[in-house]
Amino acid sequence: MVYKETLGEKWFTISNYLFLILFGCSTVYLFFYILVLSFNDGIDALKGGIYFWPREFTLANYQTAFGNPNIMSAFRLSVLRAGVGTFLSVLLTSMAAYALLRKDLPGRKYIIFYCFFTTLFSGGIIPLYMLYKEIGLINSIWIYIIPGMYSFFNIIIIRTYFENIPHSLSESARMDGAGDLRIFFQIYLPLSKPVLATIALFVAVAHWNDWVTGAFFVNNPDLIPAATLLQKVLAETSFEANAMQQSMNSDLMAKAVSNTTPEALRMAFVIIVTIPVLCVYPFLQKYFVQGVMIGSIKE
Q1: pLDDT tier at 286 (50, 70, 90 boundaries)?
Q2: Contact by Cβ (8 Å): 94, 192
Q3: Cβ–Cβ < 8 Å for 267, 34
Q4: In angstroms, rounded to a whole number, what is the distance separating the alpha carbons of residues 66 and 72?
Q5: Side-chain half-sphere of 196: how many Cα atoms within 13 Å?
Q6: Fewest beta carbons less than 10 Å away: which of 22, 84, 210, 217?
Q7: Confidence category of residue 21, pLDDT binned at 50, 70, 90
Protein backbone atom coordinates (compact mmCIF):
# COMPACT_ATOMS: atom_id res chain seq x y z
CA MET A 1 0.00 0.00 0.00
CA VAL A 2 1.43 3.34 -1.08
CA TYR A 3 1.27 6.04 1.57
CA LYS A 4 -0.36 9.24 0.36
CA GLU A 5 0.36 12.53 2.05
CA THR A 6 -2.57 14.52 3.36
CA LEU A 7 -3.18 18.11 2.32
CA GLY A 8 -1.90 19.37 5.67
CA GLU A 9 1.34 17.38 5.34
CA LYS A 10 1.90 18.74 1.83
CA TRP A 11 1.46 22.33 3.00
CA PHE A 12 3.76 21.64 5.95
CA THR A 13 6.45 20.31 3.59
CA ILE A 14 6.06 23.25 1.22
CA SER A 15 6.26 25.78 4.06
CA ASN A 16 9.39 24.07 5.39
CA TYR A 17 11.07 24.24 2.00
CA LEU A 18 10.10 27.89 1.55
CA PHE A 19 11.43 28.79 5.00
CA LEU A 20 14.73 26.98 4.38
CA ILE A 21 15.11 28.59 0.94
CA LEU A 22 14.47 32.08 2.34
CA PHE A 23 16.80 31.45 5.27
CA GLY A 24 19.53 30.14 2.95
CA CYS A 25 19.15 33.09 0.56
CA SER A 26 19.35 35.59 3.41
CA THR A 27 22.53 33.93 4.67
CA VAL A 28 24.18 33.81 1.25
CA TYR A 29 23.16 37.38 0.46
CA LEU A 30 25.19 38.74 3.38
CA PHE A 31 28.36 37.27 1.92
CA PHE A 32 27.32 38.30 -1.60
CA TYR A 33 26.75 41.89 -0.44
CA ILE A 34 30.27 42.04 1.02
CA LEU A 35 31.61 40.66 -2.28
CA VAL A 36 29.75 43.33 -4.27
CA LEU A 37 31.06 46.15 -2.07
CA SER A 38 34.61 44.84 -2.33
CA PHE A 39 34.47 45.25 -6.13
CA ASN A 40 32.82 48.66 -6.03
CA ASP A 41 34.51 52.05 -6.00
CA GLY A 42 34.97 53.05 -2.37
CA ILE A 43 33.91 56.69 -2.71
CA ASP A 44 30.87 55.70 -4.76
CA ALA A 45 29.91 53.06 -2.16
CA LEU A 46 29.58 55.80 0.47
CA LYS A 47 26.51 57.06 -1.41
CA GLY A 48 24.66 53.78 -0.67
CA GLY A 49 22.12 52.13 -2.91
CA ILE A 50 24.32 49.13 -3.84
CA TYR A 51 22.53 45.82 -3.44
CA PHE A 52 23.12 43.19 -6.15
CA TRP A 53 26.04 44.30 -8.35
CA PRO A 54 28.84 46.91 -8.30
CA ARG A 55 27.77 50.31 -9.54
CA GLU A 56 31.34 51.35 -10.40
CA PHE A 57 33.44 48.20 -10.80
CA THR A 58 37.07 48.44 -9.67
CA LEU A 59 39.94 46.21 -8.53
CA ALA A 60 41.58 49.01 -6.58
CA ASN A 61 40.40 47.59 -3.24
CA TYR A 62 42.13 44.26 -3.86
CA GLN A 63 45.23 45.95 -5.29
CA THR A 64 45.50 47.99 -2.09
CA ALA A 65 44.84 44.91 0.07
CA PHE A 66 47.48 42.79 -1.64
CA GLY A 67 49.81 45.76 -1.48
CA ASN A 68 50.00 45.25 2.28
CA PRO A 69 53.62 44.11 2.93
CA ASN A 70 52.53 41.49 5.48
CA ILE A 71 49.64 39.82 3.67
CA MET A 72 51.60 37.17 1.74
CA SER A 73 53.65 36.09 4.76
CA ALA A 74 50.45 36.02 6.82
CA PHE A 75 48.78 33.75 4.28
CA ARG A 76 51.76 31.40 4.11
CA LEU A 77 51.82 31.17 7.89
CA SER A 78 48.07 30.51 8.06
CA VAL A 79 48.30 27.76 5.43
CA LEU A 80 51.26 26.17 7.24
CA ARG A 81 49.51 26.45 10.58
CA ALA A 82 46.21 25.03 9.33
CA GLY A 83 47.91 22.16 7.48
CA VAL A 84 50.37 21.02 10.15
CA GLY A 85 48.05 21.82 13.06
CA THR A 86 45.11 19.94 11.55
CA PHE A 87 47.18 16.87 10.66
CA LEU A 88 48.78 16.57 14.10
CA SER A 89 45.52 17.32 15.91
CA VAL A 90 43.50 14.71 13.99
CA LEU A 91 46.27 12.12 14.32
CA LEU A 92 46.87 12.52 18.06
CA THR A 93 43.18 12.97 18.85
CA SER A 94 42.25 9.79 17.00
CA MET A 95 45.07 7.89 18.72
CA ALA A 96 43.84 9.07 22.12
CA ALA A 97 40.29 8.07 21.17
CA TYR A 98 41.49 4.59 20.20
CA ALA A 99 43.35 4.25 23.51
CA LEU A 100 40.27 5.26 25.50
CA LEU A 101 38.25 2.77 23.48
CA ARG A 102 40.21 -0.08 25.05
CA LYS A 103 38.38 -1.21 28.18
CA ASP A 104 41.54 -2.89 29.46
CA LEU A 105 43.45 0.42 29.52
CA PRO A 106 44.84 0.90 33.06
CA GLY A 107 43.13 3.82 34.80
CA ARG A 108 40.77 4.39 31.88
CA LYS A 109 37.92 5.79 34.01
CA TYR A 110 40.24 8.14 35.91
CA ILE A 111 41.81 9.43 32.68
CA ILE A 112 38.39 10.18 31.21
CA PHE A 113 37.25 11.89 34.39
CA TYR A 114 40.44 13.97 34.60
CA CYS A 115 40.17 15.07 30.95
CA PHE A 116 36.50 15.92 31.35
CA PHE A 117 36.98 17.76 34.66
CA THR A 118 39.66 20.04 33.21
CA THR A 119 37.30 21.16 30.44
CA LEU A 120 34.95 22.72 33.01
CA PHE A 121 37.40 25.40 34.18
CA SER A 122 39.74 27.92 32.63
CA GLY A 123 42.56 29.79 34.33
CA GLY A 124 42.14 32.88 32.17
CA ILE A 125 44.33 34.72 29.71
CA ILE A 126 47.03 35.83 32.21
CA PRO A 127 47.84 32.35 33.63
CA LEU A 128 47.75 31.03 30.05
CA TYR A 129 50.28 33.67 28.97
CA MET A 130 52.52 32.81 31.92
CA LEU A 131 52.34 29.12 31.03
CA TYR A 132 53.17 29.74 27.37
CA LYS A 133 56.08 31.97 28.35
CA GLU A 134 57.42 29.40 30.81
CA ILE A 135 57.54 26.64 28.17
CA GLY A 136 58.94 28.95 25.48
CA LEU A 137 55.97 29.24 23.14
CA ILE A 138 55.74 33.05 23.09
CA ASN A 139 56.83 34.47 19.70
CA SER A 140 57.19 30.95 18.32
CA ILE A 141 55.36 29.27 15.46
CA TRP A 142 54.61 26.37 17.81
CA ILE A 143 52.23 28.62 19.76
CA TYR A 144 49.78 28.07 16.88
CA ILE A 145 50.15 24.28 16.74
CA ILE A 146 50.86 22.69 20.14
CA PRO A 147 47.93 24.13 22.17
CA GLY A 148 45.47 23.09 19.46
CA MET A 149 46.63 19.49 19.25
CA TYR A 150 44.36 18.38 22.10
CA SER A 151 40.58 18.55 22.34
CA PHE A 152 38.67 16.29 24.67
CA PHE A 153 35.43 17.07 22.84
CA ASN A 154 36.93 15.79 19.57
CA ILE A 155 38.28 12.72 21.35
CA ILE A 156 34.78 11.83 22.57
CA ILE A 157 33.33 12.29 19.07
CA ILE A 158 35.94 10.05 17.46
CA ARG A 159 35.69 7.43 20.21
CA THR A 160 31.90 7.34 19.74
CA TYR A 161 32.41 6.63 16.06
CA PHE A 162 35.04 3.96 16.83
CA GLU A 163 32.50 2.19 19.04
CA ASN A 164 30.28 1.62 15.99
CA ILE A 165 33.05 -0.33 14.22
CA PRO A 166 32.55 -4.09 14.82
CA HIS A 167 34.91 -5.29 17.51
CA SER A 168 35.28 -8.59 15.64
CA LEU A 169 37.46 -6.87 13.03
CA SER A 170 40.12 -5.94 15.56
CA GLU A 171 39.86 -9.32 17.27
CA SER A 172 40.40 -11.13 13.97
CA ALA A 173 43.40 -8.94 13.17
CA ARG A 174 44.83 -9.52 16.64
CA MET A 175 44.49 -13.29 16.19
CA ASP A 176 46.52 -12.95 12.97
CA GLY A 177 49.31 -11.24 14.89
CA ALA A 178 48.48 -7.57 14.29
CA GLY A 179 49.39 -5.09 17.00
CA ASP A 180 47.51 -2.02 18.16
CA LEU A 181 49.30 0.34 15.76
CA ARG A 182 48.52 -1.84 12.76
CA ILE A 183 44.89 -2.26 13.82
CA PHE A 184 44.58 1.48 14.34
CA PHE A 185 46.13 2.55 11.02
CA GLN A 186 44.79 -0.24 8.78
CA ILE A 187 41.33 -0.85 10.25
CA TYR A 188 40.03 2.03 12.34
CA LEU A 189 41.37 4.98 10.37
CA PRO A 190 40.22 3.77 6.89
CA LEU A 191 36.75 3.03 8.27
CA SER A 192 36.48 6.40 10.01
CA LYS A 193 36.89 8.82 7.10
CA PRO A 194 33.57 10.65 7.76
CA VAL A 195 34.33 11.53 11.38
CA LEU A 196 37.99 12.30 10.66
CA ALA A 197 37.02 14.62 7.80
CA THR A 198 34.48 16.34 10.06
CA ILE A 199 37.00 16.87 12.84
CA ALA A 200 39.62 17.99 10.31
CA LEU A 201 37.21 20.60 8.95
CA PHE A 202 36.41 21.88 12.45
CA VAL A 203 40.08 22.07 13.44
CA ALA A 204 41.23 23.66 10.15
CA VAL A 205 38.54 26.36 10.32
CA ALA A 206 39.42 27.03 13.96
CA HIS A 207 43.10 27.43 13.04
CA TRP A 208 42.30 29.65 10.08
CA ASN A 209 39.91 31.95 11.99
CA ASP A 210 41.92 32.21 15.21
CA TRP A 211 43.19 35.77 15.61
CA VAL A 212 43.47 35.85 19.42
CA THR A 213 46.69 33.82 19.57
CA GLY A 214 48.53 36.09 17.16
CA ALA A 215 47.20 39.24 18.84
CA PHE A 216 48.06 38.34 22.47
CA PHE A 217 50.98 35.90 22.34
CA VAL A 218 53.03 37.02 19.32
CA ASN A 219 54.92 40.28 18.82
CA ASN A 220 56.97 39.28 15.79
CA PRO A 221 55.31 40.76 12.63
CA ASP A 222 56.65 37.82 10.60
CA LEU A 223 54.56 35.42 12.73
CA ILE A 224 51.22 37.19 12.33
CA PRO A 225 48.58 34.92 10.67
CA ALA A 226 45.97 36.11 8.19
CA ALA A 227 43.14 36.24 10.76
CA THR A 228 45.14 38.47 13.11
CA LEU A 229 46.17 40.69 10.20
CA LEU A 230 42.50 40.98 9.22
CA GLN A 231 41.55 41.93 12.77
CA LYS A 232 44.20 44.66 12.84
CA VAL A 233 43.11 45.98 9.45
CA LEU A 234 39.46 46.04 10.59
CA ALA A 235 40.41 47.96 13.73
CA GLU A 236 42.56 50.46 11.81
CA THR A 237 40.07 50.98 9.00
CA SER A 238 37.22 51.41 11.49
CA PHE A 239 39.16 54.20 13.17
CA GLU A 240 39.94 55.86 9.85
CA ALA A 241 36.34 55.51 8.67
CA ASN A 242 35.05 57.21 11.82
CA ALA A 243 37.59 59.98 11.38
CA MET A 244 36.53 60.51 7.77
CA GLN A 245 32.88 60.70 8.74
CA GLN A 246 33.52 63.19 11.54
CA SER A 247 35.79 65.48 9.54
CA MET A 248 35.54 65.35 5.75
CA ASN A 249 38.52 67.63 5.08
CA SER A 250 40.92 67.31 2.19
CA ASP A 251 43.73 65.74 4.22
CA LEU A 252 41.59 62.80 5.34
CA MET A 253 40.05 62.35 1.92
CA ALA A 254 43.54 62.17 0.45
CA LYS A 255 43.94 58.85 2.27
CA ALA A 256 41.43 57.31 -0.12
CA VAL A 257 44.02 56.33 -2.71
CA SER A 258 42.44 55.46 -6.04
CA ASN A 259 39.01 55.98 -4.41
CA THR A 260 39.70 53.17 -1.93
CA THR A 261 38.01 53.90 1.39
CA PRO A 262 38.59 52.10 4.71
CA GLU A 263 35.16 50.46 4.46
CA ALA A 264 35.83 49.12 0.94
CA LEU A 265 39.27 47.89 2.00
CA ARG A 266 37.69 46.09 4.92
CA MET A 267 35.30 44.25 2.60
CA ALA A 268 38.18 43.18 0.36
CA PHE A 269 40.13 41.77 3.31
CA VAL A 270 37.08 39.83 4.54
CA ILE A 271 36.67 38.21 1.11
CA ILE A 272 40.38 37.39 0.84
CA VAL A 273 40.44 35.62 4.21
CA THR A 274 37.10 33.81 3.69
CA ILE A 275 37.64 32.43 0.18
CA PRO A 276 40.16 29.66 1.16
CA VAL A 277 37.67 28.10 3.60
CA LEU A 278 34.91 28.17 0.98
CA CYS A 279 37.23 26.42 -1.49
CA VAL A 280 38.07 23.59 0.91
CA TYR A 281 34.56 22.86 2.20
CA PRO A 282 33.08 21.33 -1.03
CA PHE A 283 35.73 18.60 -1.02
CA LEU A 284 34.82 17.58 2.54
CA GLN A 285 31.07 18.09 2.28
CA LYS A 286 30.29 14.41 1.59
CA TYR A 287 32.19 13.25 4.66
CA PHE A 288 30.97 16.20 6.71
CA VAL A 289 27.31 15.30 6.18
CA GLN A 290 28.02 11.70 7.20
CA GLY A 291 30.08 12.80 10.19
CA VAL A 292 27.45 15.06 11.73
CA MET A 293 25.04 12.07 11.75
CA ILE A 294 27.18 10.30 14.36
CA GLY A 295 25.00 8.82 17.06
CA SER A 296 21.73 9.86 15.43
CA ILE A 297 20.98 6.44 13.93
CA LYS A 298 21.08 3.22 15.89
CA GLU A 299 20.76 -0.21 14.37
Answers
A1: low
A2: yes
A3: yes
A4: 8
A5: 19
A6: 22
A7: very high
Of how many residues is the chain composed? 299
The answer as to CATH 3.90.1300.10 being correct for domain 59-291 is no
Of 102, 205, 195, 124, the closest CA to residue 153 belongs to: 195
Question: Are 284 and 200 a contacting pair, CB within 8 Å?
Answer: yes
Domain limits, the chain: 59-291
pLDDT greater than 70 at residue 249: no
The single-letter DSSP state of residue 135 is: T
Rounded to whole angstroms, how far apart are CA atoms 70 and 49?
Answer: 33
| Residue 98: Cβ within 10 Å count | 22
Question: According to the model, what pLDDT value does residue 91 have?
Answer: 93
CA 238/CA 98 separation, integer angstroms: 48
